Amino acid sequence: MKNFLIAPSILSANFASLGQEVDAVLAAGADVIHFDVMDNHYVPNLTIGPMICKALRDHGVTAPIDVHLMVRPVDHMINEFAKAGATMITFHAEASDHVDRSLQLIKEHGLKAGLVFNPATPLHHLDYVMDKLDMILLMSVNPGFGGQSFIPATLQKLRDVRKLIDASGRDIILEIDGGVKVDNIREIAEAGADMFVAGSAIYGQADYKKVIDEMRSELEKANV
Ligand SMILES: O=C(CO)[C@@H](O)[C@H](O)COP(=O)(O)O
C-alpha cells in the first residue's frame, strides 16, 4: 500500500485540553498533527500561533507538526514556527510577496516546505518552484473554518496535481484538507492524495481510534 498519512486538524480539538487531545489522536494512530494558523486577515478567523506549537513540543509531542499558515504576510511566521518546533510549513502563494524566497526560508530552517491552493486558486503558482516543494496542499473547502463540506471539483484538481508531481519525478507529498471523512477518503486517495487532513471527522467522534482505523481500512481498498 502507498504510504498514506492521516493528519488530524487540531482546529476541531478541545482547546481547553489541547495537549491531551493531541496525545489522544497520536495514540489512536495519527501520523501527523495538522496545525491551522489563522490571522483574521488572510482568513476570517483567529486561531493559534507559535507559542502553542512550542507548548505542544514542551508537553512531549514528538510527532511531525504540519503548520498550515493562513496568514499574510508569511515570512515572520515561518521564522517563529521554525523556532517553535514545526516539522513542515505550508503557506498560500497569494499571501507571500516573494513565494520563492518564502520557500527558501522554510528550507533554510531544515523543514519541509509547501504551497497551499484554495479551491479556486489556479495551479500556475507551481510554475518554476516545483524543485523547491516537499508538499502541495489542496484545500477542498474555503479556508477559515472546520466542519465544511468537501468541494467535489477538488477531485479533478487532485488528479491534475498528481500528474504534475509524477511528471516532475520528485517525491512531493500531495495533501488534501477540508471535508475529508470515512465515506470519501478512498475516492480522494484514488484521485491522488497521499496525506489527509481531517478535523471534525476525527475530533467530532468520541472514539478517535475507531475513525482513524476506518479511514485506514478505506485507504487499503483504494485502487492506486
Ligand atoms: O484549514 C482548515 C480550514 O481552513 C482545515 O484544516 C479544517 O480544520 C479541516 O476541518 P474539517 O473540514 O476536516 O472539519
From TrEMBL:
Q: Which GO terms describe its biological process?
A: pentose catabolic process; pentose-phosphate shunt
GO CC terms, sorted: cytoplasm
UniProt enzyme class: isomerase
The cofactor note reads: Binds 1 divalent metal cation per subunit.
Pathway(s) it belongs to: Carbohydrate degradation
Q: Which residues form the active site?
A: 36 (proton acceptor), 177 (proton donor)
A Pfam short name: Ribul_P_3_epim
Q: Which InterPro entries match?
A: Aldolase_TIM, Ribul_P_3_epim, Ribul_P_3_epim-like, RibuloseP-bd_barrel
EC number of this enzyme: 5.1.3.1
Binding site residues for a divalent metal cation: 34, 36, 68, 177
Q: What are the record keywords, sorted?
A: Carbohydrate metabolism, Cobalt, Isomerase, Manganese, Metal-binding, Zinc
Positions contributing to substrate binding: 9, 68, 144-147, 177-179, 199-200
Reaction it catalyzes: D-ribulose 5-phosphate = D-xylulose 5-phosphate
Q: Which GO terms describe its molecular function?
A: D-ribulose-phosphate 3-epimerase activity; metal ion binding
- Cofactor dependency: Co(2+); a divalent metal cation; Zn(2+); Fe(2+)
Q: Which family does it belong to?
A: Belongs to the ribulose-phosphate 3-epimerase family.
Function, as annotated, reads: Catalyzes the reversible epimerization of D-ribulose 5-phosphate to D-xylulose 5-phosphate.
| Record's protein name | Ribulose-phosphate 3-epimerase
Q: Which organism is it from?
A: Moritella marina ATCC 15381
Question: What lineage does UniProt assign to this protein's organism?
Answer: Bacteria, Pseudomonadati, Pseudomonadota, Gammaproteobacteria, Alteromonadales
